[in-house]
Every structure is written in structure tokens, then in C-alpha cells.
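Agenda item 2: calcium ion complex prediction
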Amino acid sequence: MRGGRVRGPVIATLALIVAACAALPAAGPVAAPVPATPPASIVVIMTDDLDEVTVTAMPRLRSLLHDRGTTFNAFFAAVPICCPNRASLMRGQYGHNHQVTGNYRWYEGLYLSGREEDTLATRLDPSHRVIGVGKYMNAYPGDAAPTYVPPGWNRVRFSSGEPEYLGYRLIETSGAGPPSLVDYGSAAEHYSTDVFAQQADHLIRETAADGEPFFLYVAPKAPHGPQGDASVAPRHRGAAVTQSQRPRSLAFDEADVSDKPSFVRGLPRLTQKAISDLDQKHRQRQRQMLAVEDLVQTILTALSETGRLESTYLFFTSDNGVHFGEHRMTQDSIGATKGRLYDTDIKVPLVVRGPGVPEGATRDQLVSMIDLLPTILDITGHSMPDYVDGRSFRTLLQLVPERWPRRGLLVQTWNGADNDESGRGPHGRALVTASRRYLEHHGLTPREYELYRSETDPEQIENVYASASRAEREELQRALDALKDCRGASCRTAEDAAPD
Ligand SMILES: [Ca+2]
Ligand SMILES: [Ca+2]
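Presented output:
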């Protein structure tokens, strides 16, 4: 039995008592009962493969979220592909600790290992209605029931197979009764981003009517490929976009890749055809995101109309970034648009709006997907489990944050048949600090390294590893070694001890 089921009416009653007291004429000091503040509600919108470049092309998103909340400029994936980073959200752990090292490894890492018995969902279950809409992981485990619902989730509309824009099946639960499988077709009204928006709207209103706080996880497929017209909402097909081209940054079709490791060094300059294909996909991704802007608006409206906007924190993020021509890498040339250790892939959007969160503010402190679980538990009054590697960044949501002691972060990739989507790239790990990126490619023989000075070279054009001093190389290697096997508190100690 969940405490939240009875808390709502109790609070409502207390509120009535307080309101009644306030209406009485003052007769000296009255020790009126102070109603306990109900836990805040939480919304996490997890887009799929949304990168920071594309966010700059979405003005409505920026006016709904960034102008009204705090934007994190240095938010990193723990593992820069879908399932592993979503597992980092659900467990607050680095990849080597949750062991979801590939997109279909979550079966072993979460389900079989029993780690799924203790997640963000189960931790919030006693106090919140825990609602999941959209993509939980890439697909459901082979030997689980087709209607499998992970522990802790009270209401779900989760994709049962691969998430799709049209033609998909959802596992749906209500308060009582067994889960059901519901098929959605290819009609305009079945476009999944819109369906998820309507479901989120319905579940927010239902939960608000029941007087419970909620945790709502909404995960649309957008702007994940494919980028054909069928993956754009019918009303947005051919719509005008802000950026007609993928921005021609220094990294785009990088002129000189002689500094790069072998898997990039061997790439030719982009052909005109490749560039026009990248530009076309970039335009389609913006069109896919137009429906996500509508989804954000729908959720904000539902929160506002149910009186929950002032007590709800909304986190808008993505599971990984992408490269679309940066460092000459395309899906055709490197086999995937993501999963590399460059900032294009590992740095992902995060914006938070909610009560007391400064509007239009930015934060440069290093934060990671492993921090969302501890932050959300902190905001909702729960203690943090010992297994968590991350830390609460609640202080960064205040007008004047306290000192942020973290100096380094770990990012990891694994090269496996179902992890590195190309099967061709190296597995490795990166140390992220305020001023440097240090990359080790363990899948290459001999092993290769990269070092970038982020303050002067944020686009990672000049790998300076070869010219770095031996002392600097050793210092970075030691710091990365201290993180690669860390667990819980020892991760935070190693992060704080990293060199700037
Ligand atoms: Ca993804
Ligand atoms: Ca270069």
C-alpha cells in the first residue's frame, strides 16, 4: 500500500482547517497546525538522440523551458547511447556498476541481475504515483511476459517492442487489473509523440484529481532516426525550420584529421551528397522536434490547469548526443550517429524548471546522468541509496549555488555486437574536466589517446596528446584509472580529486 494514496485527502483536510482558521477574527496568537508540505511532483522528459545543436534550432522549446528554467552547459552522458544512459538515470550509476553496457544488455544488467528491483521508480513508489510513458528501454526482455512492467511503476504506457513513430504496441496499465497490450496504427492520430502527450496529459489530470504527487517519465522517440516523412507528425511535414543546414562549425567536415585516432584519421572529406543528406536529416529532426515542443506545451498546460505547475520540477533532457558530419563522422562513414567519446555525442541537453529554480540561468558545473536519481530523491525528501555513484545537484537549482566540488566525470563506451552500433569503433573511456577532455581508446591496437583543451578548443579540432608533457599524461591517466572501477562514494571522491 502506498502512502501517497491517503496523503492527498489528509493534506486537503489540513488545508481546509488552515483556511478556516485564517478566516476567523484574530484572537491572540493561534498555534494553527502547519500542514506538511507535500512532496514535489517530478516530470522527466527524455528525448532520444537530441543534441545541443538541434536544441539551438528550437525557439519554442527555449521559450517554454530555457527562458523559464536553468540550463546546464556541462551535462554529460555516462554512456553515450540509449539504454546504458537510461540505466544510469534509473540507477544513478556509471556503466561499469549497472552493467548495462549495450543497447540490449539491459536484460542482463537490470532485469536478470535484480538491479531493477531497486531503481528511481521503486524509491519513489511509496510517496509518488510513478508513471512511465514512451520508451523505457529499447525492447523488453526475451523471457519476460509481453506485458512485463518493471517494479515500482504504477501506471505505464511503455513501448513493448522497439519504439516507433507509427505502428507500435504499448503496454498499458491503469490502477487495477492486469496490464494490456494496445496496438497503434499508422493513422495521423497515432503519431507516437502526440499519443504520448495525450497520455501524459490524461495521467497528470487523473493523478491530480486523486490528490497524489507524481513522478512522470515521458520518453518520445523523437528526434531519433529514421528521418523520413513518416517519422514527422503529418501536420509538420515540410514545415519551415530555423536551421536549413547543419551548422558549419569548425568540427563539421573537419579540415585536418591527422591529429585524430585511426578510425577518424582514415575518413575522407564529406562529399556534397553526404552533406546534403546530413542537412536534410537536420531539417527533419527539427520537424520531429516540433511535436516535442507541442508535448512540452501540453504537459505545462496540464500542470497549470491542475494547479501543479508551482509544485512540479520538470527536467528536459536526452539520452545521448549525435554527430552529424562533425569530425567527418556520419552514419555511413562510422556506422552510427552516436556512441563516440567526442563532446558532440557525450554532452547532452539538460534544462530544469520548477519552484525556485532561477529563470534564464545557466550552470557550467559538471553534471552527469548519474546525478538525476540523487537529485530527484533529494527534492522529494528521500535518502540516497549507497549504490548510487552520482550526487544531488539540488544546490545548482538555487539562485546562489553552494560550492560544487566535483572536478572530473567519467564517460564510458563498450565495443560489443549490440553496443557499439557500428561494431567498428573502439571502446574506451573519457575523463571530462572543466578544462580538458582526455580520451583513451582501448579497442584500438596499439591503444590510442586524445587530449583536448576545452577552453580554447571546445570543438575538439586539435588533439594535443602527442605534445602534452609526460607528467600531464600520467596525471590524467591516474585520474581516469581512479574512476574506472569506482563504486558509490569512491566515485565522488575520485571525481573531486581529478585535476582541472
Ligand atoms: Ca538515444
Ligand atoms: Ca584536427
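Discussion summary: The first strand starts at residue 41 and ends at 47.
Owner for follow-up: CH.
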